[in-house]
Design brief:
- This protein has a domain of 185 residues: NADP-dependent oxidoreductase domain (TIM Barrel, Alpha-Beta Barrel).
- The chain contains eleven helices and ten strands.
- The protein is an alpha/beta fold and 278 residues long.
- Strand 6, helix 4 and strand 7 form a beta-alpha-beta unit.
Length: 278
């Protein structure tokens, strides 16, 4: 894993190329969202992650349109919340997202969280229909534990499961499924909502490479087979820093130290979340 180079900055899953390092837009709204996405594209990001519940799809779309970057060069993801999982509501929500994003298609449409009120078969069948119509290139899920992801894959081929993943939270069960079934595990909150920057082990590893703790954590993630990451960054400087991952390598000793960190710190676990032991 330690030989990841600039040429490996793109992950190929099921024949689809996905930039390993994307730009997340959670909690970015209004002008800040538009300016941040435009800046990210100017810096070189080509993987943009949003969601209907982020209330920023229009701003993301405006930034893409103004960027001058060809739409075909951008891997664009959005997500639909469980309140819209009934097939007709899901189709209407997807159409609304396309209008807001000012695009004919999204590269990846995710079910944002599992639903305990709409049968998964109904929702995935609606995703299949959107894919057949060319409105989404690929369907996927978010916040699905391994057992639920496996059941979903029996119904519909999926490209991704986007979940919280960082040096303080293990995802071995999901990683096994991702590797066996050739899908990507996309890490959100990869910097553990600030905890990475404060960790002395990650700081020491970073100092040895002339890098920040955040760069160490992101490098650790994207070195792993099937893994991509979508950190949010509110400043230009941090967005630049997060991309500078391809000029150093973690050593085996570095990875052993990161592996030894406790892996039970789930930072995002809402009341509607799934049973992660499933």
């Amino acid at each position: 894993m330690g030989d990841l180079t600039t040429e490996d900055a793109v992950l190929t899953v099921q024949g689809t190329e996905i930039p390993r390092l994307g730009f997340g837009t959670w909690m970015l709204t209004g002008r800040a969202a538009e300016e941040s996405v435009r800046d990210a594209l100017e810096i070189g990001y080509r993987h943009i992650d949003t969601a209907r519940m982020y209330d920023n799809e229009a701003e993301v779309g405006a930034a893409i349109a103004a960027s001058g970057v060809d739409r075909g060069d951008i891997f664009l993801t959005t997500k639909i919340f469980p309140s819209d999982f009934e097939p007709e509501r899901l189709k209407a929500a997807a159409e609304d997202s396309l209008r807001a994003l000012d695009t004919d298609y999204v590269d990846l449409l995710l079910l944002h969280w599992p639903s305990d009120s709409v049968p998964l078969e109904r929702t995935l069948d609606a995703l299949r229909g959107l894919q057949e119509q060319g409105k989404i290139r690929h369907p996927g899920v978010s916040n699905f534990p391994a057992g639920m992801l496996t059941r979903a894959l029996e119904i519909l081929p999926l490209l991704a499961d986007q979940v919280e993943y960082h040096p303080f939270l293990g995802q071995e069960a999901l990683l096994r499924v991702a590797r066996e079934r050739d899908l990507t595990l996309t890490a959100y909150s990869p910097l553990a909502r600030g905890k990475v920057a404060r960790d002395p082990v990650l700081r020491e590893i970073g100092e040895a490479h002339g890098k920040s703790p955040g760069q160490v954590a992101l490098r650790w993630l994207i070195e792993q087979p099937q893994v991509s990451a979508v950190p949010k960054a509110s400043s230009h400087e941090r967005r630049v820093e997060n991309l500078e991952l391809f000029d150093f390598e973690l050593t085996d000793a570095d990875r052993e130290r990161i592996a030894a960190l406790r892996k039970d710190d789930r930072r995002i676990d809402p009341s509607w979340g799934p049973d992660w032991a499933e």
